[in-house]
Amino acid sequence: MDQFEYVMVLVSIVVGLGVAHMLIGIGGVIDRLTGLGERMELSIAHGSWMGMIFSWLLLFWWWEFRFSELQPEWTVGLYFFLVSYSVMLFLLAVVLVPRNWDGVTSLDEFFVRRRVWFYSFLFLATSLDVIDALMKGGWGYVLEQGPWVWGFWLATVPVCVHGARSKTVAHHAVMGVSFFALQVFVGFEAMALLGL
After folding, report:
1. Under a CB-based contact definition with an 8 Å cutoff, are residues 182 and 48 in contact?
2. Secondary structure of residue 65 in the 3-state scheme
């Protein structure tokens, strides 16, 4: 086992826990929709942000493979950075999906109650994503990824500020759908540009 594989074991576990947490949460929603417990109102805002964070977890794990090609000097700082980034994504999943759905009857209301936590973690995770890209190849690597990636990073600032303040579900839905679509597009477009 080389250093990259050793470091990525813990990162993979944290990402896997985030994915598992979201899937178990989706299972809980399905249970509620099929008659187990109180009826639950679905939400475009909540669902689109769930899709966005789920795809980010998967793409993060895939993109971190770039470090195996770079063969950086593995330091405790780099190790803690990668673990912190994965933990931040896990926390985004935790904010969106409670351990227990009891008492949740509207996913719109649930999301609005947790919006400040969600958008704060979203801003921190995006900041870590920018640092991660710089660590993988500096400004040249960042510029190589194209305007969609920069647009994603830059759009996060006003989205997080507005999202943390707004209680209007329609605003959260528009931002969630837009970011989910952008996340999927950027993930695959950037991979094609970089030949991955």
Report:
1. no
2. coil
What is the C-alpha separation between 87 and 17, in angstroms, rounded? 10
37-84 pLDDT per residue, tens: 778 899 999 999 999 999 999 989 888 877 777 766 788 898 999 999
Tokens, residue 170: 């329609």
At what angle are helices 44-63 and 3-33 packed, to 10 degrees?
A: 160
* Residue from 152, 144, 133 nearest 194 by CA: 144
Number of other CB atoms surrounding residue 75 within 10 Å:
9
Q: Long-range contacts of range 140-148, CB-CB < 8 Å, 24 or more positions apart? A: 144/193, 144/194, 145/190, 145/193, 145/194, 146/189, 146/190, 146/193, 148/182, 148/185, 148/186, 148/189, 148/190
- Report how far residue 89's alpha carbon sits from residue 85's, in angstroms, rounded to the nearest whole number: 6
Look at residues 97, 80, 90 and name the one whose alpha carbon lies nearest to residue 22.
97
Mean of pLDDT over the chain: 89
- Residue 174 sits at the vertex; the CA angle it makes with 158 and 45, to the nearest 5 degrees, is 105
